[in-house]
Amino acid sequence: MGIALVTGASAGLGLEFAWQLATARHDVVLVARDEGRLTRLAGQLEAAAGIHAEVLAADLTDRADVERVAERLRSDERPVGLLVNNAGLGLNQHFVSGDLAAEDRALELMVRTVMALSHAAAGAMVRRERGAILNVGSVAGLIASGTYSAHKAWVRVFTEALAVELKGTGVTATVVAPGFTRTEFHERGRIDTAHYPAIGWLDAEDVVAAALADVRRGVVLSTPSLRYKAASALLRLAPRSAVRTFGGYRRALLDEALEAPAPDA
Ligand code: NAP
User: Fold this and answer.
1) N or C: which end of the chain has fewer CB within 10 A?
2) What are the pLDDT digits (tens) for 83-127?
3) pLDDT score for 258
4) Residues tagged active-site
5) How many folded domains does the chain comprise?
């Protein structure tokens, strides 16, 4: 897979992708907004794994920044062989009463940027007849829980369509659909996880190891853990009216959280 470019590498799953890829002797390109964190990580990866780590600070909701990352993906100098479209966020708001600008940023980050970077990477990789694209979706893409579910459903269908188009080119596309994973995601999004079942939680290390194993095998749909494989199979078979009850559950939790005073109020 050669050099790997990971978006959202400053925290959570992206940080874990960077470590596991570096440990497997891949040079890495680290992308996120927090340049300080990325620079520290690059130093740690170089010292611990003896690889080369590039830092590419970018706000992936800003189209000029996205274009700089796309340029890096198109470049034939130190070519990128694996793109991991991982950066993402959770919104702690209802759609109707929520802030549309925040919705726009979420859509830009988790849909438009994934499309633009996949386009840049796929074009260069097909030309070189090798490469892999890994898009981070979510098990939420199978249910109806806010616009986040819609974004992650888009990521899944988009990646499957990309895999169909890439067949026979030497380039693969994989979408990983994790369940709840311990990262900074919920705290950053001010999402209350007190009611989440303990059995639902996954470790970033296991999610990333499963996703990278599936990329190496050319698997298109990757669902880490037996628990979530079983849950996803049930969700695919269940009538959509039953699946929508999960969205109702999230709605009730959000109602409760939004009624509670903000922690810093
Ligand atoms: P996290 O710990 O909050 O990390 C999010 C990463 O995305 C950070 O590195 C952050 O870096 C980056 N990011 C956020 N906004 C950005 C922007 N505008 N431009 C560039 N980078 C940005 O969350 P995580 O759990 O690792 O999430 C990674 C992916 O997994 C997301 O796509 C998420 O939807 C998905 N996922 C997470 C879970 C879960 O339960 N944690 C479950 C299923 C799927 P900076 O702040 O430095 O920019």
Assistant:
1) C
2) 999 999 999 999 999 999 999 999 999 999 999 999 999 999 999
3) 77
4) 148, 152
5) 1
Mean predicted lDDT score pLDDT of the chain: 95
Q: Is the CB of 33 under 6 A from ligand 1?
A: yes
Boundaries of domain holding 247: 3-225+234-259
**CATH label of the domain that carries residue 155:** 3.40.50.720
Q: Which two tokens stand for residue 20?
A: 């596991």
pLDDT confidence of residue 63: 98
Q: Whose CA is nearest to atom 3 of ligand 1?
A: 185
Q: Residue 264 falls within a domain, yes or no?
A: no
pLDDT score for 265: 39
Query: Is 16 within the bounds of a domain?
Result: yes
Distance 168 CA to ligand 1 centre (A): 32
**Per-residue model confidence as pLDDT tens digits over 219-265:** 999 999 999 999 999 999 999 999 998 777 777 777 877 776 554 53
- Using the structure block, give the residue that is written with the tokens 């940023």: 105
C-beta of 12 in contact with ligand 1 (< 6 A): yes
